[in-house]
Amino acid sequence: MAGLFALLADPTRLRLLAALAAGELCVCDLAAATGINRTTVSHQLRTLREGRLVRSRREGRVIFYARDDDHVRDLLAMGIAHAGEIAAGAGTQ
Question: CA–CA separation, 64 vs 54, rounded Å?
Fold first, then answer.
């Protein structure tokens, strides 16, 4: 579990996962959507793929990436909700 949270702790990887909410995207589209250069996008996608947070699909010479499954969506949604509670002060006693 610590490894999973370490993967999610990186802001660049979170931006990529958020961009993939729209569906499958290639490296070029992810770079354009996030403002992150293609080399960094490729490196972080490899890390996310190794952690099984994203999956890839080849179509000709282009590789498309997507979130691996609904668990990834749920993890991000719960994290966003929890961060919002903390920001609003609801997480303090």
Answer: 10
Count of domains observed in the chain: 1
Q: Extract the tokens encoding 10.
A: 């990186």
Residue 22 lies inside a defined structural domain of this protein: yes
Would 61 be classed as within a structural domain?
A: yes
- Which amino acid, residue 22? A
| Spatial separation of the C-alpha atoms in residues 50 and 34, rounded to whole Å | 21
CATH number, residue 73: 1.10.10.10
**pTM beyond cutoff 0.70:** yes
Which tens digits make up the pLDDT trace of 31-64? Answer: 999 999 999 999 999 999 999 999 999 999 999 9
4, 66, 67 from 22: Cα distances, Å: 22, 9, 10
Q: What is the pLDDT of residue 89?
A: 86
